[in-house]
């Protein structure tokens, strides 16, 4: 499918906070009740529309377990957006945010958009971290904030799409150098004002074979 | 040598008169110089000299100079030339290849490069030093660094991969080099990345994340796709590494629209046909085909396969592949691999199968591509691998597709009108009864795939009649198969026909009845099953005959008078015996070729001799085996009670008997579980001990290598000096003694290791046996359970109260 832009995301945060579930809910609209520990990283993708433009999101879901931390670090550089996730029912996952943020700031490009996410908002009765605390942390560190539930899908779309909007705005403002792929942004094969999305397939590189798709 | 020595004078100063320094001595002095000189020029010269000696005196330079060279990498970063000498020296020392200079030197162990690599990477910081040098833009330094990393990876791939993975930006740095505008560096980086990514999913994912596919397709397209040089092949090999068994990357590849980008690779312009294919082009296209197959390999998840297949169809890749199939002048290797690829691209995907079914070959008269392919399959003169590929492709075409299965059978039915043109069915029938054994086998298996899980076509195929001799009445295909089975002397043909009949008759009482009516069939099967030959293939044949007999029994609808279910059962128990029968049956899955075939849908035969069993047949066998055995032993348990128990005597004694049996088995099961637990623990502690001694061993090996090197250095000193000074001798003796103790220690440890490995192995075997026993018992238990329930039901239906805690299903008395 043709897209105007392609953004690369990573999802980071402690193990068990629901990173993989957020991705699955976003790409497949499903919820997975058992914790299927992520080993290394897993890839997912989806198309969204912003401002009438097709935007392809490529998302790398990382493993939260300490043992995979150095692998995760390889993914900061080259990502345009990051979802930093904690679990509102486990205060320790909130306490670790500073470490995560330091890691992210140290290894990513300075323009990377970070969205702070307090997940499992459906478990109100077991809440350990107040919403206000999340907001305060985000304000203090210049992040966007949202509470989500990968189970009920509440705010899941919004979390991914708002991050994309933020990146999109930065592009409009000229903050991102979109020709540098290390920023995690690519311009689509034909950078036109997104035509009928259904028809065109991706054109071949090198321009020679432009047409023969779909 | 003289050249060296004269050149070295300047570095070392004039030698003492009358003293010819040995190589080891020179190395020692050079290392000293690198360590102690304050002037950069001196250090540089010494490094240059070390590099010059590092091929002929690899052991000495490695043993004495390793640490010094590492220091140079750290401290002399400012001087590219010195760094470069140090890198090249290290690269020589750890090179995986043997140098010409050392071919006749028995003192250099074969795996010396690997041993030095092992020492070098003990300190992970060393790898970091080398990685840091990748930041250097200087051409020589960068090139040498890449080459050194490649050597290290060749020697110890797994270790280096794990080290690099935890180095910050380790993989990313190497990926950056792929963008280097200097082609030599880019090309060497490709080789490095191929080694780096081999078999490590985590690294593969990072490399893909770092836009590898974009970079690689850029290179492939600027180099001219399939017409490009070896660099194209390297790019494709790297892609293959990134995708193989890596579903995350395959998903990324698919989502990133890279499938489309493969298309130009397969667009072979018409004009080049005559010119023929260069060997490089053959390799390039071959790699590209392998990439396509990796995406749609049957071992991937169904979701990935289907979506990749759909994209391949939509972007015209399948079309392009079919064009290669139908064009002339394509080398046989490529044609074969293309046929396999087309097969996997359509396998189980209805639209694609239909597309393939409609491809027409540019023959005269025009024929469906499928028919042309099958013509090759039943043609003795075609290459063996090509014929295998056609079979696989045809199987893929039929796989999970009732329409293409029906289409095949349709071509054989009397109603099919056009007799003039050649059809798939006719080709297969021809092959089935041809004198070429392979044609028999291929055709029978192909036909069998037209019947899989398709009861309608099984019945339809019964209607097929063959005209044999003019004048005599036509014979049904099934009769003809039965006849051939009895007449042929060739094992392959027999096996093929038995597989076909098994597939045909399973779940199809009408086919069973037809077989039972055919003259001689049952008798022949019984005789074969009873045969007593022990050759592997004969045993297999006996098993297959047993299988077909069991199918005759299990799927029997009692419509053939002489062979009703019951009379067949009695025949088998009397003539063969239950135990013999089931043991013969179980032999089938023990055959080597059965196990080979069961692994993968594609027949992976290198030689005609490897062709015997088909994958789908294995699946059928697995499903049927236990069912059939059960049905055979059926209602006649212990031969005691007849199928309909006399009313009034459903003795609670039997019930009690079973309960006791179950209790006993339960106890035995517990006992076995406990034993298993014990064995597991024992195994674990053995494993621990083994690991300990392994690491001790490796430590000693290192020490040994180092000492050997030092001894050889020490040894060579006296040769140069007229009178060996006593102290040197002492040292030597001491070293030798130490060496001997160490060698002894190593020997002791290896033997210890061996014993403990053996112990572990026998433990493992025992464990396996216990597991199997346990499985058997569990199965038996389940069996007994069913029976128990049966009896309970029977008791209930006879109005007996059952004093049991488990509630029996409520059944209204009738
Ligand atoms: N109730 C509720 N449970 C959730 C939610 N999100 C995730 N979970 C549960 O939390 C557990 C962990 O979810 P994952 O998505 O596998 O966690 P992860 O962050 O990917 O963990 P790692 O892969 O180890 O880093 C699972 O059992 C999920 O079912 C949510 O929004 N609400
Ligand atoms: Mg996860």
TrEMBL record, chain A:
Pfam families: Ras (PF00071). GO terms for cellular component: Golgi apparatus. GO terms for biological process: protein transport; vesicle-mediated transport. It is found in: Endomembrane system; Golgi apparatus. Keywords: ER-Golgi transport, Golgi apparatus, GTP-binding, Lipoprotein, Membrane, Nucleotide-binding, Prenylation, Protein transport, Transport. Gene3D superfamilies: P-loop containing nucleotide triphosphate hydrolases (3.40.50.300). One of its GO terms (molecular function) is GTPase activity. InterPro entries: P-loop_NTPase, Rab_GTPases_membrane_traffic, Small_GTP-bd, Small_GTPase. It is a lipid-anchor. Belongs to the small GTPase superfamily. Rab family. This is Ras-related protein Rab-2A. It comes from Trichoplusia ni. The lineage of its organism: Eukaryota, Metazoa, Ecdysozoa, Arthropoda, Hexapoda.
Automatic annotation (TrEMBL), chain B:
Residues 633-654 are annotated as: Disordered. GO terms for biological process: endoplasmic reticulum to Golgi vesicle-mediated transport; Golgi vesicle docking; intracellular protein transport; transcytosis; vesicle fusion with Golgi apparatus. The keyword Hydrolase does not apply. It comes from the Eukaryota. It is a peripheral membrane protein. Keywords: Coiled coil, Cytoplasm, Golgi apparatus, Membrane, Repeat. Residues 367-631 form the Vesicle tethering protein Uso1/P115-like head domain. Residues 696-806 form the Uso1/p115-like vesicle tethering protein C-terminal domain. One of its GO terms (cellular component) is ER to Golgi transport vesicle membrane. Pfam families: Arm_vescicular, Uso1_p115_C, Uso1_p115_head. Residues 655-689 form a coiled coil. InterPro entries: ARM-like (IPR011989), ARM-type_fold (IPR016024), P115_Arm_rpt (IPR041209), Uso1_p115_C (IPR006955), Vesicle_P115 (IPR024095), Vesicle_Uso1_P115_head (IPR006953). It is found in: Cytoplasm; Endomembrane system; Golgi apparatus. This is General vesicular transport factor p115. The gene is LOC113503674.
């Amino acid at each position: 499918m043709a897209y105007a832009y392609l953004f690369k995301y990573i999802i980071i945060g402690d193990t068990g906070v629901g990173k993989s579930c957020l991705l699955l809910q976003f790409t497949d609209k499903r919820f997975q009740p058992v914790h299927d520990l992520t080993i290394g990283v897993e890839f997912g993708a989806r198309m969204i529309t912003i401002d009438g433009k097709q935007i392809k999101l490529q998302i790398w879901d990382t493993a939260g377990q300490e043992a995979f931390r150095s692998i995760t670090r390889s993914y900061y550089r080259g990502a345009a957006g990051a979802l930093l996730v904690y679990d509102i029912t486990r205060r320790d996952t909130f306490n670790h945010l500073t470490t995560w943020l330091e890691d992210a700031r140290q290894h990513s490009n300075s323009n990377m958009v970070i969205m702070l996410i307090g997940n499992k908002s459906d478990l109100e009765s077991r809440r350990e971290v107040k919403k206000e605390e999340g907001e305060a942390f985000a304000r203090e560190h210049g992040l966007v904030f949202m509470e989500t539930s990968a189970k009920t899908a509440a705010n899941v779309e919004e979390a991914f799409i708002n991050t994309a909007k933020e990146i999109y705005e930065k592009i409009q403002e000229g903050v991102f150098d979109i020709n540098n792929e290390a920023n995690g942004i690519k311009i689509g094969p034909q950078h036109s004002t997104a035509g009928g999305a259904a028809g065109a397939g991706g054109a071949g590189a090198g321009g020679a074979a432009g047409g023969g798709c779909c | 040598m003289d050249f060296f020595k004269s050149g070295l004078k300047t570095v070392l100063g004039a030698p003492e008169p009358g003293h010819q320094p040995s190589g080891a001595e020179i190395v020692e002095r050079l290392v000293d110089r690198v360590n102690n000189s304050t002037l950069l020029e001196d250090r540089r010269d010494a490094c240059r000299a070390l590099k010059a000696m590092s091929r002929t005196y690899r052991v000495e330079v490695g043993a004495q100079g390793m640490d010094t060279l590492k220091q140079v990498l750290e401290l002399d970063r400012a001087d590219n030339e010195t760094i470069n000498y140090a890198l090249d020296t290290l690269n020589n020392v750890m090179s995986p290849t043997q140098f010409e200079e050392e071919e006749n030197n028995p003192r250099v162990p074969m795996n010396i490069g690997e041993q030095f690599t092992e020492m070098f990477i003990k300190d992970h910081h060393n790898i970091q030093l080398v990685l840091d040098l990748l930041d250097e833009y200087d051409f020589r330094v960068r090139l040498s660094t890449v080459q050194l990393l490649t050597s290290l990876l060749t020697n110890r791939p797994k270790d280096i991969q794990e080290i690099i993975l935890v180095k910050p930006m380790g993989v990313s740095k190497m990926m950056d080099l792929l963008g280097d505008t200097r082609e030599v560096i880019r090309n060497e980086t490709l080789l490095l990345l191929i080694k780096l990514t081999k078999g490590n999913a985590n690294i593969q994912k990072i490399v893909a994340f770092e836009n590898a596919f974009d970079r690689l397709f850029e290179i492939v397209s600027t180099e001219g796709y399939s017409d490009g040089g070896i660099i194209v092949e390297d790019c494709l090999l790297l892609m293959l590494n990134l995708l193989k068994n890596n579903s995350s990357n395959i998903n990324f590849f698919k989502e990133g629209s890279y499938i489309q980008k493969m298309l130009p690779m397969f667009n072979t312009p018409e004009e080049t046909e005559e010119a023929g294919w260069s060997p490089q082009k053959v390799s390039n296209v071959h790699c590209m085909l392998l990439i396509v197959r990796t995406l749609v390999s049957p071992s991937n998840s169904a979701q990935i396969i289907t979506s990749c297949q759909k994209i391949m169809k939509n972007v015209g890749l399948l079309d392009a592949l079919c064009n290669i199939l139908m064009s002339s002048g394509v080398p046989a290797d490529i044609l074969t691999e293309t046929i396999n690829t087309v097969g996997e691209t359509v396998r189980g995907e209805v639209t694609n199968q239909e597309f393939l079914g409609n491809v027409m070959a540019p023959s005269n008269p025009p024929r469906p591509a499928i028919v042309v392919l099958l013509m090759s399959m039943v043609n003795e003169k075609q290459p063996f691998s090509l014929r295998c590929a056609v079979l696989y492709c045809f199987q893929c075409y039929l796989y999970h597709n009732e329409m293409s299965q029906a289409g095949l059978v349709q071509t054989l039915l009397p109603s099919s009108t056009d007799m003039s043109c050649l059809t798939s069915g006719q080709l297969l029938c021809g092959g089935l009864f041809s004198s070429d054994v392979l044609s028999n086998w291929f055709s029978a298996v192909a036909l069998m795939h037209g019947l899989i899980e398709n009861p309608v076509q099984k019945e339809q195929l019964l209607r097929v009649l063959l005209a044999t001799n003019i004048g005599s009445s036509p014979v049904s295909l099934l009769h003809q198969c039965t006849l051939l089975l009895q007449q042929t002397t060739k094992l392959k043909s027999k096996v093929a026909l038995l597989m076909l009949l098994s597939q045909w008759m399973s779940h199809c009482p009408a086919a069973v009845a037809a077989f039972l009516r055919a003259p001689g069939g049952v008798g022949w099967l019984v005789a074969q099953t009873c045969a007593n030959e022990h050759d592997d293939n004969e045993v297999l044949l006996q098993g297959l005959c047993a299988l077909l007999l069991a199918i005759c029994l299990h799927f029997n609808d009692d419509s053939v008078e002489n062979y009703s279910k019951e009379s067949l059962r009695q025949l088998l128990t009397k003539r063969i015996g239950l135990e013999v029968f089931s043991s013969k049956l179980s032999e089938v899955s023990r055959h080597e070729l059965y196990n080979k075939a069961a692994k993968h849908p594609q027949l992976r035969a290198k030689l005609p001799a490897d062709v015997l069993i088909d994958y789908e047949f294995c699946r059928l066998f697995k499903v049927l085996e236990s069912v059939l055995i059960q049905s055979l032993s059926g209602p006649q348990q212990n031969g005691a009670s007849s199928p309909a128990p006399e009313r009034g005597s459903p003795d609670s004694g039997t019930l009690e008997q079973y309960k006791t049996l179950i209790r006993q088995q339960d106890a035995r099961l517990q006992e076995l579980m406990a034993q298993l637990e014990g064995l597991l623990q024992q195994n674990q502690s053995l494993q621990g001990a083994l690991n300990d001694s392994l690491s001790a061993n490796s430590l000693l090996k290192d020490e040994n290598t180092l000492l050997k090197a030092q001894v050889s250095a020490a040894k060579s000193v006296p040769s140069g000096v007229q009178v060996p000074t006593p102290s040197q001798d002492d040292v030597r003796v001491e070293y030798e003694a130490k060496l001997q103790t160490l060698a002894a220690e190593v020997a002791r440890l290896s033997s210890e290791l061996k014993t403990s490995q053996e112990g572990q192995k026998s433990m493992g075997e025992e464990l396996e046996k216990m597991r199997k026993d346990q499985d058997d018992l569990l199965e038996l238990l389940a069996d007994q359970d069913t029976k128990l329930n049966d009896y309970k039901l029977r008791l209930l239906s006879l109005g007996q109260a059952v004093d049991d805690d488990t509630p029996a299903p409520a059944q209204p008395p009738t």
